[in-house]
Predict the structure.
Amino acid sequence: MLGLLGDEWTLLIVQRALLCARRYRDFVAALPVSNAVLSNRLQNLTEQELLSRSEYQGNPPRFEYLATSTSRSLWPMLTSIWEWERRWIPDHPEPLPRMRHTACGTEFTPLVTCRACEEFADDKSVAAQWGPSGSWERSIPAAGTRRRSAARRSGAAEMFPQTMSVIGDRWAFALLVAAFVGVSRFTDFQTQLGAPPVTIADRLTVFTEEGILVNSEARYRLTEKGRAFFPVLVCALAWAQRWFPSPEGPAVILTHTACARRFTPVLVCDQCRGRLRGSQIHPVS
């Protein structure tokens, strides 16, 4: 999942495909992306079956890129990212618009509920444990996007600036997941993740500066802003385990403690309480 989605351009191209961009010129018009980067990402997304390429003109040949079932099912994660960035990151170059739920016609905030009991769920009511194919070692990719300084961020990173500081870096993502399951001391982060001390120190500093963690009495704890990232994490995990299953079984097992059943996230509209569908979500112009 991190190997595919730990790249801001990939996420933004998929988002635009879900908003009906199809042709090369549609993506160029919607995103501040160079031709070389766009061509590279479209090729990679096609190879990974997040987009399908279809010829719509023969002479000269022209192609359009259509969302697949795999990419269409990313809408809960993308919706959660949009809401988190809109609410918690005030310094966007352009403020992110609110979202409208076309089923009820109102501006809304997505809420996470449990598929089994349909009740609200958050990080305090969902317990995580390793499944048959899970471990810290196996869940951290051997290679990943290196964390980039603010000076090296692309135009895309400015659109999802702090989300990419989490999912755009393998150690940062793993560290935040560890914080959600209760790890708080520097030495415990290092022991659990198996990362060099300088790596742990660097990611803790970034998260503290961004207000995702707070350092108190030698413990790093999630802030309200950090806990609000929960929908992104569980939607990303649900997507990964759906499309990249292991024959041994799931990597992570989530339980909703309120109903004691297996937890699968479902997003609902906070206004009408109806289940959201990707096709029913539109930015407010």
